[in-house]
Amino acid sequence: DGGITQSPKYLFRKEGQNVTLSCEQNLNHDAMYWYRQDPGQGLRLIYYSQIVNDFQKGDIAEGYSVSREKKESFPLTVTSAQKNPTAFYLCASSMAGGKKDEQFFGPGTRLTVL
Amino acid sequence: AQTVTQSQPEMSVQEAETVTLSCTYDTSESDYYLFWYKQPPSRQMILVIRQEAYKQQNATENRFSVNFQKAAKSFSLKISDSQLGDAAMYFCAWGATNKLIFGTGTLLAVQP
After folding, report:
1. Taking CB atoms and an 8 Å limit, are B45 and A88 in contact across chains?
2. What is the predicted pLDDT for the residue at A114?
3. From CA A46, how far away is CA A98, in angstroms rounded?
4. Is residue B54 very low, low, confident or very high in pLDDT (cuts 50, 70, 90)?
């Protein structure tokens, strides 16, 4: 079955540590995205990538980094510079980056900073 | 900047009844797309319905339909014959190039 996988489902991190969230898709989609979800705020875009080896900052990129070395993979690193990293993180993909394109979402990763 | 507003943080409906969730947006563009996504307790985001702004006809998907008022910048979702499985958070979203702009969501409870 085609879809998007995210791992791990739950992640705990100590303050000052970097942590990487995994996102893999087998939908053959060109575009991939990372969103952050906080209570009462909806989803906000962190980074997106339209093609391998290229990515762009979204609305809240500070304290995060990404890579896109393979079409199928778009890992997100939450660095120690992110001041409030505890949140639910959702990865998504779409055929391209067009306005009309449906975005397909993964099951999410809940990150908690201890 | 484009914004999406959902003014109803929570709604409740009786099973088999109809409920309407509100959404307004602000944009200066004329060609765009609007979406409703459902997020059940599993937190998996699922597309419910999509509307193309240049189409005057309201989109429908089985029990789900929209009331799209372009001049008023309104995009409400109507759920008919509500079922227990419809209980979820519903997000309205505006489709921009390379991203979706989401509202803050409406939590829908379905009473048996």
Report:
1. no
2. 86
3. 17
4. confident
Q: Indicate the length of chain A as a whole number.
A: 114
b/e map B23-53, b = 16+ CB within 10 Å:
bbbebeeeebbbbbbbbeeebebeebbbbbb
Interface residue A13 vs chain B (CB under 8 A): no
* A41–B104 CB contact, under 8 Å: yes
Tens of pLDDT, residue by residue over B60-105, are 999 999 999 999 999 999 999 999 999 999 999 998 777 789 999 9
User: How sure is the predictor about B111, in pLDDT bands with cuts at 50, 70 and 90?
Assistant: very high
Tokens of A99: 């306005």
For residue B111, give how far its alpha carbon lies from the nearest alpha carbon of chain A (Å).
Answer: 23
Task: Take residue A62 and report the two structure tokens written for it.
Answer: 């500070």
Residue type at B70? K
